[in-house]
Amino acid sequence: MTIKSGEYTDSELIKIFHDPGKKEYAFNLMVQRYKVRLYWHIRKILIDHDDSDDILQETFLKAWRGLETFREESTLFTWLYRIATNESLTFLRRKRRHNIFSLNRIENSLAESLEADTYFNGDALQKKLQRAILALPEKQRLVFNMKYYDELKYEEMADILETSVGSLKASFHHAVKKIEKYLSDD
């Protein structure tokens, strides 16, 4: 009989992780529980499948190294999302510096990746929505994706992004207005 990650709470998984003989078992259950959600969160930021896969691995490596000292001041979910978000944004910043791209060129590059992506099977309207999201400033894009696609509450996003709920609400509002304008323009 195989035990599924859903049979344990996050706190129970962390307790199991602290048992030296069960570290890998507990960590594998955590990966099983969160890998799909984290992958798609990262993918919305980076667009590219291969880059997203790499950053997902980096996220779990960082989590493995940090779990020993994880104090449960936030939920495991929030902590993993924060790591994934920071790793994704760091990757984009390195890519900008390395390629000496302006922000607009990075966004255009991401949009071109979206158009060429064999894993994206959206129709013209979905592609237009994705281009509108990519045209947003980084913080607004991140907040929009977390609220719209991941359906996170503002309080969860505030923990992940370490910012205020009010700031997030304002960012989301501005993002929605910009997307509406982008979609209505032809």
Keywords:
186 residues; mainly alpha; Rna Polymerase Sigma Factor, Chain: A; Arc Repressor Mutant, subunit A; 9 helices; 74% helix
Account of the 3D structure:
- This protein is mainly alpha-helical.
- It has two domains: 8-121, RNA polymerase sigma factor, region 2, helix turn helix motif (Rna Polymerase Sigma Factor, Chain: A), CATH 1.10.1740; 122-186, Arc Repressor Mutant, subunit A (Orthogonal Bundle), CATH 1.10.10.
- Helices cover 74% and strands 0% of the residues.
- It contains nine helices and no strands.
- The protein has helices at residues 10-17, 23-46, 49-66, 76-99, 103-116, 124-134, 138-148, 154-161, 165-184.
- α1 packs across α2, α2 packs antiparallel against α3 and α7 packs across α9.
- The longest helix is centred in the N-terminal third of the chain and has 24 residues, at 23-46.
- The protein is elongated.
- 26% of the residues are buried.
- The mean pLDDT is 86.
| Low-pLDDT residue spans | none
Termini separation: 56 Å
CATH architecture of the largest domain: Orthogonal Bundle
Number of helices: 9
Q: Give the number of DSSP strands.
A: 0
